[in-house]
Structures are given as structure tokens and as C-alpha cells.
Amino acid sequence: MEMEMQTYTSDKLRERYFGFTHKSGLRVYVFPKKMSASYALFATRYGSLENSFKLATDAGFTTVPAGIAHFLEHKMFENEDGTDTFERFGKTGANANAFTSFDKTAYLFSSTDNFYPSLEILLDFVTHPYFTPETVQKEQGIIAQEIRMYEDNPDTRLYYETLRAMYEKNDVRIEIAGTVESISEITADLLYKCYYTFYNLHNMVLCVCGDVDADRVRHVLDKVLTEAPRQEIVRRYYEEKKTVFKPRTEMHMQVARPQFAIGVKDGDIPSDPLAFAKKDFGMKILNEILFGSSTAFYNDMYERGILNSKFACEYDSAKTFAYDYISGETDDPDAFFAAFKQYIEDCKQKPIDEDAFLRAKRSVYADFVRLFDSTEDIASELVFNALLDVDLFDNIGVIDAIDASYVEKLLHDCFCEAYFSLSIVSPF
Fold first, then answer.
1. At what angle do helices 273-291 and 394-401 cross, to 10 degrees?
2. Helix (H), strand (E) at residue 389
3. Residue 4 has what pLDDT?
4. Which residues contact 190 (CB under 8 A, 6 or more apart)?
5. Distance, CA of 125 to CA of 88 (rounded, Å)
6. Are 240 and 39 a contacting pair, CB within 8 Å?
7. Distance spanning both ends of the chain, measured CA to CA
8. What is the CA radius of gyration of the chain?
9. Cα–Cα dist 207/386, whole Å
């Protein structure tokens, strides 16, 4: 049943967008924004972690090879009539792309004109799968080359080694593209099984932003989409302990200076969407207080030549995993790790400075507001929030509600040595 269009407004931002559920079952969000480019993002709640699943009506679970979600994303651009999807977009002047993450797969385009014909192409090719044993075999060779290329990339290797150090069983420890061995097990039948399970329109969302009209978007949907059967997906994930799997790992590669990453494993993930959002923003504020470029810790390390400008810290969270990823270059990663742990303990011995908290909170708030200067960022953030069942504008109130005591509690709860792992890439 089609739902009436709902209007979401923000007086603070002086912005608004519209949302409705189309009669096909697809959730749709339209954010009018008169800018040079319009942007559309068609996403499914299906990423590299969904390797064991079933429909509620199935007798047993289906287990699939690692990397199949990414493989499926690649295969969706091929059409049964032999046409090339990128050529179709080229005729409308749109730039198309796609990506697979741990928890979602998304297909997208940007355009300066011909938005609605481009939207029709997007909806059409993503809802018409075509796989054969021959095309699957060809793709296996292409993706195997891609996997080998990333195996030679120090940043990618460091990232996944850090995840493998933190997580013992969670499939976040496996590369999104899978392995050469795992993708060799992918078949056309398995691709169709994954497609018809996860590319059901009830499991998907469309977010568009730009010089667009909600009624015209609905007209394109009516033209292209048919009603999808409502179905319940049961996803099976591994149980994971809160502490890290390995406190330290090291590998050797062709790098000029040792690279390091400190993973801070977060095993306490709120199930309530707004509480989830609050923790996500709270950790971003805490990271700015602890490791921002204006902190005494970073500037001392930088001036002494221990760290350089590549030092970075990012909190990443989803419904089944969360972690802080602190990375950089240093001649002695173990010495820096010891200094990091001592610094954290020193910070715990005193209350968080109110001025530092307010500066960090303003910085995080400004980053959120800055999203609204880009149609691409707006559409991407709409998808992120829609898949978490959060209204995009609710984030303003979420950030406003965060106080210093909440952030201080995050410091004590999350930054414990049992949750730390150090990964190093050293020169040969």
C-alpha cells in the first residue's frame, strides 16, 4: 500500500525533504536543492557481512562465499540484451557508479540535466538481473585481479589486519571483495539467490537530491517498478566477544616508514536508532577532544617528529560492529602505542575540559551542517540514516543533547586496554 508523502523540515537549517513508501514497497526520500548537479542513490540493506541468511519461509540457512555482495554489484551492470549500462547513462550525460560496504550496496548517478531519464535507467537496470555461468567466470578473473591489486596496497592491508586483530569471528574481518579462493565458488544460481533475497524493494531505499520534484520522481517509479512481495529476511551473524582477538600484529611491505593503526573495539552497540546516532556523534566529539589537530597530544607528537600529518582518527559503526581506527606513520609504533595508552589513562584521571568539549562539539556540528552544501553528501547521508531508521534532521537534536558527562562516560567505557589492538606495516 502506498503511503502519503511526509514532509520533514528543519527550522535551524531552513531545509526540507519529502518521504513516502511507493506502492512497489520501496522507501523513497526526495530532497529538493537547487544546485548544479542532482544526485540519486538506490541502495539495498545488503553488504559483505550477509554471508548466512534465509527467508522466514525457508527451512534452513543459505551460506554463501565471502565477497558475493560485491561480485553481485559488478554483475548488475550487465544486461540480457547485451547493452552496456554505462553507455545508457552516457546518452543522458549522467555519471554512474556503485559501491559495496559491509552493510549496504548502492547504485548511483549524478547529472546536470536529463535527471528523470537517468533515474529511469537506474531503477530499470538494478531491478533486472542477468547472470550466466560464462559471464560469472569472466567476472571472477576481473575481480581476482582487483583483489590482488589491493593485497599490494599497504593502507588496505593495514586496515584489514587491524580488523582481523580486533575481531575473531565477525565477517567484518574479511575483505569486502572476498578472496581469490572465495569468489571462485560463486555461481550464477548463488547470485540469483542473493539477488532475490536482498534486492527486494521492501529491503531497499531510493534517495535523490537536487533540482528535483517529488511528484515527477513518483511518476518514474510508477513507470518502472512493480509491486514486490513482502518477505522477512533472517540474517545470521557470529557472536563476538568484547575484547580484541589479538593485541598486536605486524607485517612487512614496501613502505618507506612504519605505518600503524590502533583499533579500539566497541562491543556495546545501541539497538535503538537514536541512541545509536548519539553514540556515533559522541565518539566523533571524543575523538576530536583526544586526537584533534589542535590537541596538545598531537602537537607534541608532531613537533617531536613522532607523528606526521598523516595521523587520523575515525569512528565507524554499524548494527553489528563498531570501532575507532587511529592510524599514522611513526618510526617506533610500539613506543607510540605505549604513549597512547599512557595518554588515555592520564585523560581518565581528570574531567573533560568544558572548553575543549564545546570546541569539539561545535566542530562535529559544523561538519554535519556542511553536508548540506553538497547534493551527493545529502543523498549519501539520507541513505545512511534511512537504513538505520533515523530521520536525517533528528541528528541536530541528537548532537544538541550530548553533554560533557556523556562523552566522559564514553572515554571510560570504550577506551580500555582490553579493547586495543596495534597493527603495524614495517619496511622489509
1. 50
2. none
3. 87
4. 64, 65, 68
5. 10
6. no
7. 62
8. 23
9. 9
Distance separating alpha carbons of residues 160 and 66, to the nearest angstrom: 14
Q: Give the separation between CA 279 and CA 305, rounded to whole angstroms.
A: 33
Question: H-helix or E-strand containing 132?
Answer: none
Q: How far apart are CA 338 and CA 247, in angstroms?
A: 13
| Other C-beta atoms lying within 10 Å of the C-beta of residue 77 | 16
Would you please indicate which residues are annotated as catalytic (active-site) residues?
73
Alpha-carbon distance of 225 to 222, in angstroms, equals 6
Measured distance CA(79)–CA(128) in Å, rounded: 8
Distance in angstroms (rounded) separating the CA atoms of residues 160 and 325: 11
Condensed to tens digits (0 to 9), the pLDDT of residues 25-40 reads 999 999 999 999 999 9
pTM over 0.90: yes
Residue 149, SS3 per DSSP: helix
d(CA 363, CA 285): 8
Cα 225 to its chain centre, rounded Å, is 26
When pLDDT is averaged across residues 394-418 and rounded to a whole number, the result is 98
Pair 17, 32: CB distance under 8 Å? yes
Contact 416, 344 (CB under 8 A): no
Q: What angle separates helix 296-303 from helix 273-291, to the nearest 10 degrees?
A: 40
Tell me: pLDDT of 140 over 90: yes
Residue whose C-alpha is closest to residue 343's, from 364, 322, 362, 326: 326
Contact 8, 28 (CB under 8 A): no
